[in-house]
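Justification of computing resources. Each target in the renewal requires a structure prediction run like the one illustrated here; the chain below, 158 residues long, is used simply to show the kind of job we budget for.
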Amino acid sequence: MAANYAIKYRDDFERMEGSGDSTWLLARKVVVLYFYPKDETAGCTVEACAFRDAYEDFTAAGAEVVGVSRDEAASHARFATHHRLPFTLLSDVDGAVHALYGVQSRLGGLVRDRVTFVIDRSGIVRQEFSSMIDMRGHVKSALPVVRQLVGTTAAPVG
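Resulting structure tokens:
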């Protein structure tokens, strides 16, 4: 189910800690924004590595991949180095951006949702994929939408 609402690039992303340089988002690229529960957990590592393995496909199609969790920036730095992640991980410690996108915690915060959004160059969310158990499905779901948005064709992922 594709959501159809806009984001404000500067306001949404500059609130989060991360690489310290969100100016590339202002270029209005297609953005694959994926929210994940926690650095270095089994499922989150599988998901991050799936995005890592398909990263060149995403960038060749004209998109940037950005991961978001509530972990602190230092945790993200360790996670990115450990798994050789080539994309930006942003920290949303207070959960404000999670709330803005409707990414929820369940069971009193013990279980956090895993959601991926594909956002077009105008800042409109064109696809939303949510699955706690199909970590690689986030990549398989997002890449065809990115290719459609930018008008490229290439071999499917996976």
